[in-house]
Structure formats: structure tokens, C-alpha cells
Design a protein that fits this description.
Elements (H helix, E strand, L loop, with lengths): L16 H5 L8 H21 L10 H25 L8 H42 L6 H16 L3 H14 L11 H29 L17 H20 L7 H18 L4 H53 L4 H12 L2
């Protein structure tokens, strides 16, 4: 993964995580190996399906929704794996639990930041709706329409302060991709390798969202995955394709990078000068055509934002229920560290 100031340099400061996770001489029985291979092969297929068929799909709301849907599936897959491992939470190392609780809390904060950004984009649509309402009436309302279009321009160029917090969280998560050394537990080794996979893909997908919402490719991450992972090639192919296109988009100097938002903004730019000037009979039909185009593009933007918002909410619920289930199992299991972990989690929730 690259550091923010040097996005093209691979970031792997902790070396090969599997040198710690699966040292020489380690052995996984046929059942555990089958569980691990099944998880990693499923992950590889999800990543292959996520790779856009066309460059224009990158940073479209529909593709971003697909990326987050894949992430929801991956987080569900690891819950299934944990159940199949039959590894009671009371047997988890305290370090695993601490890392899980910290990371899950960070993911919840990231979801809140993404929801806030989507909400802000939806608020911007109110300016468009006001403009369209005024343009559908008599020409005396054109001044109000222009004011609304100006409001739209200012709104989409403003930055959401919640994203700044999201950036620091992402930087912190990028430093937790190393893995604790597992000495004797074969099941623990499988669990940690699967958790590593989920963390890498989660951090990467979230970095795409932060790059899309922030207006900068500096937060886009590059990760290296050990070749021993069955999903390494699929991940590398996806990452190379998507990162190359995102950096190309930003290098072109576009004001907006979300595809549906870009189409709406282009419609506004065409409409604005005609509304600004007194419309003659020749331009009247052009005005109506542009208004019609804006209605359609605004509708697609609205639908895309609503669907994306639903998936962000779903991901939030998956992370939250997983976190709650872990805390519940710890309380039931009577682990000696339960009270410490529970108090820590409750303290974080009160931030």
C-alpha cells in the first residue's frame, strides 16, 4: 500500500505476513486446508466479478454499489468460516479481539462519513429541483433558477468535514495490516489468514470511496498481496485496472469524478448560459431539450445515490452485528478479559 505522499510506491512495511502466520513446518489438516481454500477461492471469484468491464464503469455509482455489495458478501463469508472453524471466542487470543474491536469501530466511523457525504450530495439535488421547478413556469422565474444553479455549483464544490476524520481513520487502518504470530493454533492460523484477506480488501474498497468523495487520488491505496494467497492475482488485476483509471480521471482535471454527478454537472453547464440570457424563439426549443436532459440525469443521480446509501447502511449493519455478536459471546463465555474488552468497547462507543 502506498503512503499518501507517494501513491505509486507499494506499501508493505511489515514484510510478508505469512512468514509470521504460516512459518516453515506449519501444517494444516485436510479439513482446515479445504475451509481456507474455499474461502480464498470464493474471494477470488468476487474480485474477478468486481473488475469493471469498461473504463467508464469506474467511479460510477452503480459500480461503487457493486464494490460495497461485494464487501458485504466477503464479511458474511468470514462469519461463515468462523462458524465452520468451530473456534470458540473464548479461545481467541486477546490481541485478535482487540484488533477486531478497534477495526470494526473504525469501519463504523467510515460508514458514517460515507453516509454523510451521500446525504450532502442528495442535499445538492434540492438546488436542481428548485431550478427545474422555476424553469417549468414563466420566464420571470429565470433569476430564481439561476440562483438555484449557482447554489448547486457551490454545493458540489464544497468539502465535507467528516471526510477529514475518515482520512485519518484510513491511515490508521493501513498500519494494522500486519498479523500477530500464531505459534500453535492451526485454526488460529486459518482465522488470521482469512481476517488478513478481509482487511486488505476492505481497506482498499474504502480507499476508492475516499478518493471518489474527496476529489483527490492521494488517498487511493496500492497494496501488495503475497503470492501464496489464492486471491492475489484477482486482487492485483482489479487494483491495477481501477487505480490506473481513477488516477487518469483526476489527472484530466475534472471538477467532479462520480460519473452520474459529472453528467448532471455537464447538463447544468449547458443550461446555465441559455437561462442567463434572454431566450429567443430559436433557443426556446434548445432550452426545453436541455431541461429535459437535466430531469433525466438528475433522476439517475437520485436513484444511484439512494441505492448506494442502502448498501452503505447494510454494510454498517453487518459490521455492527458482527461486533455485537463477538461481545455477546465474550460475556457468555466468561473470559477473564471480558470486562476489560467490554469496558473498552463501551468507552469507544461513547466517543
Amino acid at each position: 500500500m502506498s503512503r499518501p505522499q507517494d501513491p505509486h510506491r507499494p506499501f508493505l512495511p511489515f514484510g510478508n505476513p505469512f512468514r509470521m502466520l504460516l512459518p516453515k513446518g506449519s501444517y494444516l489438516g485436510p479439513k482446515l486446508l479445504a475451509l481456507l481454500n474455499s474461502f480464498e477461492e470464493t474471494l477470488a471469484e468476487r474480485l474477478k466479478r468486481l473488475k469493471p468491464r469498461d473504463r467508464e464503469d469506474v467511479l460510477s455509482l452503480s459500480w461503487m454499489r457493486s464494490a460495497l455489495e461485494s464487501l458485504c458478501g466477503i464479511h458474511t463469508d468470514i462469519k461463515t468460516l468462523i462458524t465452520a472453524l468451530e473456534l470458540p471466542v473464548c479461545d481467541w487470543d486477546d490481541k485478535w479481539i482487540d484488533v477486531y474491536l478497534d477495526n470494526s469501530l473504525n469501519l463504523l466511523d467510515i460508514c458514517i462519513a460515507f453516509t454523510s457525504e451521500i446525504s450532502q450530495l442528495n442535499q445538492g439535488r434540492l438546488f436542481l429541483q428548485c431550478a427545474l421547478h422555476n424553469l417549468s413556469g414563466d420566464s420571470n422565474k429565470s433569476v430564481r433558477a439561476l440562483s438555484s444553479l449557482d447554489g448547486w455549483r457551490q454545493h458540489i464544490s464544497s468539502r465535507n468535514p467528516r471526510l477529514e476524520n475518515c482520512f485519518s481513520i484510513m491511515d490508521g487502518l493501513s498500519q494494522t495490516l500486519d498479523l500477530p504470530k500464531i505459534k500453535s493454533s492451526a485454526k488460529g492460523k486459518v482465522l488470521m489468514r482469512a481476517i488478513y484477506a478481509v482487511k486488505v480488501v476492505t481497506v482498499y474498497v474504502c480507499s476508492i470511496f475516499t478518493a471518489a468523495f474527496s476529489g483527490s487520488a492521494k488517498k487511493l491505496m496500492d497494496l501488495q498481496v503475497p503470492d501464496t494467497c489464492l486471491w492475489a492475482d484477482a486482487f492485483a488485476s482489479l487494483q491495477t485496472f481501477v487505480n490506473t483509471e481513477i488516477r487518469c480521471i483526476y489527472s484530466s482535471g475534472r471538477a467532479t469524478v462520480l460519473k452520474e454527478l459529472e453528467v448532471v454537472d455537464a447538463s447544468v453547464k449547458k443550461l446555465y448560459p441559455i437561462v442567463q440570457n434572454e431566450v429567443n424563439p430559436i433557443e426556446a426549443q434548445m432550452l426545453q431539450n436541455l431541461i429535459s436532459d437535466l430531469v433525466k440525469t438528475e433522476g439517475k443521480l437520485s436513484q444511484g445515490l439512494d441505492l448506494l446509501s442502502n448498501v452503505v447502511d447494510n454494510f454498517f449493519k453487518i459490521v455492527l452485528t458482527g461486533r455485537d455478536a463477538l461481545l455477546g459471546n465474550l460475556r457468555i463465555g466468561g473470559n477473564a478479559s471480558d470486562s476489560v474488552i467490554t469496558n473498552k468497547a463501551e468507552g469507544q462507543a461513547l466517543r
